[in-house]
Amino acid sequence: MNILGFTLDDSEPHPEGPREPWLRPRVVLLIDSRPLAELLDDRNSGVPLSFFLRQPVLPAPDDEFADEGAGRGRRALLTCCECGSDACGGSRGSLSVEGERVVLDEIWSNRRAPHAELRFEFDRRQFEDVMSRVAALPAPAPPWMRPER
């Protein structure tokens, strides 16, 4: 089994990169204490916290669409460009539940072919604990996601 972790990257963006406050901090996923981007040979380090919190993480047991179009599980954004989009660079993977395990596989990035050799398995409770800790972090909302006053 692999161990999932995370760190927050609040470093300054590239000098010519976007400066919007909702793009920081970035969630950097760690697998066995190594940044996932390093394992993927991906130039992008993480996902803005405000975006990370708005994506579905695991398919619900009764999710009839969990297997449609995205392999066996839910597609999750793993890394992305500083702008917050994976269209100009990033990685996605499929998260699925197999009993008491969460599996991350079917990983692909904009930089290279699918990472067919990569498959990570996590204890479901440990995975959910990490995701709960991320979900408890305060995140600045992009202007288009803020409630109107």
What would you note in describing this structure?
There is one protein chain. By secondary structure, the protein is an alpha+beta fold. The chain has one domain (4-140). It is built from three helices and eight strands, in the order βββαβαββββα. The strands form two sheets. Strands 1, 2, 3 and 4 form a four-stranded antiparallel sheet that branches. The chain has a four-stranded antiparallel sheet with strand order 5-6-7-8. Strand 6 (90-98) and strand 7 (101-109) form a beta hairpin. The longest helix has 12 residues, at 124-135.
Labels describing this entry:
single chain, 149 residues, alpha+beta, four-stranded antiparallel β-sheet, 3 helices, 8 strands, globular
What would you call the shape?
globular
Radius of gyration: 15 Å
State mean pLDDT (0 to 100 scale).
76
Share of helical residues: 10-25%
- Give me the number of helical elements: 3
How many extended strands? Answer: 8
Helices and strands in order, then pairings?
Blueprint lengths: L3 E6 L16 E6 L2 E2 H5 L6 E2 H4 L21 E7 L9 E9 L2 E9 L10 E4 H12 L14
Antiparallel strand pairs: 1-2, 2-3, 2-4, 5-6, 6-7, 7-8
